[in-house]
Amino acid sequence: APGLLVGLAGSLKLADVATLQPIAPDFLGFRGAFCERDRTTGLVPARLAAVRAAIDQTMAAAESVEPPYRF
After folding, report:
1. Phi-psi group of 34: left, alpha or beta (phi > 0 → left; psi -120 to 50 → alpha; rest → beta)
2. Dihedral through CA 34, CA 18, CA 12, CA 44, nearest 10?
3. E strand or H helix at 28, and its extent?
4. What's the gap between Cα 23 and its chain centre?
5. Which pLDDT score, from 0 to 100, does residue 61 have?
6. For 37, what's the count of Cα atoms within 13 Å in the CB-facing half-sphere?
7. Would you put residue 5 in left (φ > 0), alpha (ψ -120 to 50) or beta?
């Protein structure tokens, strides 16, 4: 109701997308999950694409179900 945005970050992994979907955050912060070895190395495009696909998939599934509550 107050129009606040919610962002979640901190060692997020691909599997966390589905876990966090029920609370409907506005932002998910990934870094290490996208990197080759650790957060100081380069980004891996395939990992970015996998997270994007997981977000799209969970959003599509959420749109088909009415949530029990809204913030």
Report:
1. alpha
2. 0
3. strand 27-29
4. 11
5. 80
6. 2
7. beta
Quickly tell me which residue has 């799209």 as its tokens. Answer: 56
pTM of the predicted protein model? 0.74
pLDDT tens by residue, 11-65:
999 999 999 988 889 999 998 889 988 888 899 999 999 999 999 998 888 777 6
Long-range contacts, 53-61 (Cβ 8 Å, 24+): 54/14, 54/17, 54/18, 55/17, 55/28, 58/17, 58/18, 58/21, 59/21, 61/21
Question: Which tokens is 63 given?
Answer: 């749109």
Rounded distance, CA 64 to CA 41, Å?
Answer: 38
